[in-house]
Amino acid sequence: QVQLVQSGAEVKKPGASVKVSCKASGYTFTSYGISWVRQAPGQGLEWMGWISAYNGNTNYAQKLQGRVTMTTDTSTSTAYMELRSLRSDDTAVYYCARAPPQGYFDYWGQGTLVTVSS
Amino acid sequence: EIVMTQSPATLSVSPGERATLSCRASQSVSSNLAWYQQKPGQAPRLLIYGASTRATGIPARFSGSGSGTEFTLTISSLQSEDFAVYYCQQYNNWRTWTFGQGTKVEIK
Per residue in A61-79, pLDDT tens? Predict the structure, then answer.
């Protein structure tokens, strides 16, 4: 069965970086993209970006351009999302989601809480 | 950027009643519209894609309709496990996705 398993919760200071992993199993990793979505406490869903696991092409949300980098390691079927220059308003649960070519998100990871606090 | 607007923000419904949720796009997204359900402390779950196709394992009481800029999610007879927040999402813009702000379905 398809599973996306994310790394554990992180606590970071303002200005630091965080890297969240998302290990995929149960499907051919390179046949799908991975999107990252975050959710601040009590708020809605915010799309952050997408990466093709086939060729590494990326597309990032404009508001995060320059601070976010998404990568994949096809040897371990793992996707990564790194966010730099963290601010308090980056505190959120970060989700990875499988993105079929059609565009919707059919499987989601369990989420990773990132807390940014001095 | 395509803006997705959901209404109402909160919907109070009694178990067994019908719930109708709306989603409007700021420009046409054709049928490239998905609906997700999210319960507290859980990841979102895909319900509907292509505006009207139920995802695998989704009960028939969930149905989606619409195209262009106006979309509807209908839950025909609310069960206790259906009380949650529902989000619409457009995927018409190539590799640029946007979500609505969500509709909370609560017990009346």
Answer: 999 999 999 999 999 999 9
Q: Average pLDDT for residues A100-109, to the nearest whole number?
A: 92
Q: Among candidates A31, A3, A28, A22, which has minimal Cα distance to A82?
A: A22
* 3-class DSSP string for chain B: CCCEEEECCEEEECCCCCEEEEEEECCCCCCCEEEEEECCCCCCEEEEECCCEECCCCCCCEEEEEECCEEEEEECCCCHHHCCEEEEEECCCCCCCEECCCEEEEEC
Please count the residues of chain A: 118
Q: Which two tokens stand for residue B90?
A: 């457009």
Q: Suggest the residue from A6, A45, A59 to mutate for an interface test with chain B (most B CBs closer than 10 A).
A: A45
Please state, for a pLDDT cut of 70, what percent of chain B lies above it.
99
Among chain A residues, the shortest Cα distance to B35 is held by A104
- N- to C-terminal Cα distance for chain A? 40
pLDDT at residue A12 in the model: 98
How far apart CA B79 and CA B104 sit, in angstroms, is 15
Interface test with chain B among A94, A104, A108, A110, by most B beta carbons within 10 Å: A104
What's the rounded Cα separation, in Å, for the pair B50 and B63? Answer: 11
Contact B87 A45 (CB under 8 A): yes
